[in-house]
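Lecture notes, part 5. Sequence design as translation. It can be helpful to think of inverse folding as translation between two languages: the language of shapes and the language of residues. The source text, in structure tokens, appears below.
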């Protein structure tokens, strides 16, 4: 069908909800033209979802607009990675080469994309990588094709939600949690200032409208997921501090009641994400709920979003190229038919050459693969051997360094308790508390220079006693280890990753 308008339609659908946000195509402002939401109980297996989508698309003339769709975070895997490059192509290659570290599927079964969140001065980049199974994306496209719709881009809710929040909040230096209540799950993001720190998506069949009722199962689950996300954020982000506020939004209902109930139940300051209203220059009164995902997708469609993730499968790209070629042929007409035939012949020749070249490359890859696998296996063995030989930070070395730092007189050590991965406990007697404080300070100073395990040394419980008519201080110094400071002792280090589990 020929396009009749230049407007943009943001489409989201699943077995419980179909929504469309329509905005103007202007790149200077976000003018809302319509926001339509339908709820139901459909199924992808009996074609009822496809039927409902066809009726929705026909009624609203979706095929006349530029259509962008959004897939929910809980339907895929997302990770925040720290990669040693600023180059976009290198980052893409790194993500593709390491696919099987993050998902249990080979690359050819996935549709993936990535976006740089932050570039560090040391040459590293924080990258949001998204991995969606090809079957999920293809089924999404199949339903759309049944309605006569081919989306320009298939966006991801995490990028849309983050973009909307960052643009709406501006430069506000606030660490906050943003909860998006979707029809088939929920997504929770932790943002600080102008960057995404952590994200998590959960699939669930809860009707989040019930969370506005105190004591409801939906409210308890929501509070539990929020606490789990905040706990994971504290573990994964080094400088994590308590969040200032929790914001709640939803595409299809007013979340005021949920925010109020969550405040009382979870004991955190919660509020509806009303700041999203600033994104719409006109037509904000047409919005149902607080549709941050749809608004963020509209910004992406206008090329104004700071983060863009697009999961367009190869089949859709091929179909899109064919559609463009067909429209071009119809516009040009019979006068240039011969020219088009020549182009088609050249294209066919190029395709044959490309196929031949690909076959040659695949043959070379097959020849080199055994050698590459052997080299990789040897590399991994060498890494494991190096890790087993590396004894830096062992218990004996820590004890030796402690002995060097201890005062010559006036203090003794009666017990040195080392727990792998957790910390040290030092107990003993001293003539005065001043000597104990001096030893703790010496340990912390060493932690800042050559023994990072000592950096958290602190005075524990102590008490004054009398021995042989002399006052004595029974002291204890505790040194907890951070995860990255734990002594190796020959064990392979844990590989940390930033993620939107």
């Amino acid at each position: 069908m020929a396009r009749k308008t230049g407007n943009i339609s943001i489409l989201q659908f699943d077995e419980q909800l179909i929504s469309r946000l329509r905005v103007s195509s202007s790149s200077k402002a976000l003018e809302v033209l319509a926001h339509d939401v339908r709820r139901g109980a459909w199924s992808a297996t009996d074609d009822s979802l496809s039927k409902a989508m066809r009726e929705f698309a026909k009624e609203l003339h979706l095929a006349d607009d530029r259509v962008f769709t959004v897939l929910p975070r809980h339907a895929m895997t997302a990770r925040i990675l720290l990669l040693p490059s600023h180059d976009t192509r290198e980052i893409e290659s790194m993500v593709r080469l390491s696919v099987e570290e993050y998902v249990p599927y080979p690359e050819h079964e996935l549709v993936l994309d990535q976006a740089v969140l932050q570039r560090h001065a040391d040459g590293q980049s924080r990258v949001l990588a998204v991995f969606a199974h090809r079957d999920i994306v293809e089924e999404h496209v199949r339903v759309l094709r049944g309605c006569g719709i081919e989306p320009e881009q298939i966006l991801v809710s995490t990028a849309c939600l983050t973009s909307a929040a960052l643009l709406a909040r501006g430069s506000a230096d606030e660490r906050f949690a943003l909860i998006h209540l979707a029809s088939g799950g929920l997504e929770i993001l932790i943002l600080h200032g102008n960057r995404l720190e952590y994200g998590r998506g959960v699939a669930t069949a809860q009707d989040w409208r019930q969370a506005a009722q105190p004591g409801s199962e939906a409210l308890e689950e929501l509070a539990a997921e929020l606490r789990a996300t905040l706990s994971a954020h504290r573990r994964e982000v080094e400088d994590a501090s308590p969040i200032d506020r929790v914001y709640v939004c939803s595409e299809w209902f007013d979340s005021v009641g949920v925010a109020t109930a969550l405040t009382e139940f979870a004991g955190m300051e919660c509020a509806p994400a009303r700041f999203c209203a600033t994104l719409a220059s006109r037509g904000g009164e047409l919005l149902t709920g607080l549709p941050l995902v749809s608004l963020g997708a509209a910004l992406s469609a206008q090329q104004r979003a700071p983060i863009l993730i697009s999961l367009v499968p190869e089949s859709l790209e091929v179909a899109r190229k064919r559609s463009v070629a067909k429209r071009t042929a119809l516009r040009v007409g019979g006068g240039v038919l011969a020219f088009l035939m020549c182009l088609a012949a050249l294209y066919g020749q190029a395709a044959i050459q490309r196929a031949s070249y690909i076959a040659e490359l695949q043959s070379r890859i097959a020849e080199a693969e055994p050698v590459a696998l052997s080299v990789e296996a040897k590399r991994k063995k060498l890494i494991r051997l190096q890790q087993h030989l590396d004894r830096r930070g062992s218990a004996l070395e820590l004890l030796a360094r402690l002995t060097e730092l201890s005062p010559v007189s006036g203090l003794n050590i009666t017990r040195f308790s080392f727990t792998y991965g957790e910390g040290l406990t030092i107990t003993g007697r001293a003539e005065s508390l001043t000597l104990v404080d001096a030893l703790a300070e010496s340990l912390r100073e060493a932690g800042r220079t050559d023994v990072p395990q000592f950096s958290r040394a602190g005075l524990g419980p102590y008490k004054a006693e009398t021995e042989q008519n002399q006052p004595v201080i029974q002291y204890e110094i505790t040194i907890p280890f951070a995860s990255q400071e734990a002594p190796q002792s020959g064990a392979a280090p844990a590989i940390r990753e930033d993620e939107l589990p």
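The translated text above is only one of many valid answers, since several sequences can fold into similar shapes. The first strand starts at residue 8 and ends at 13.
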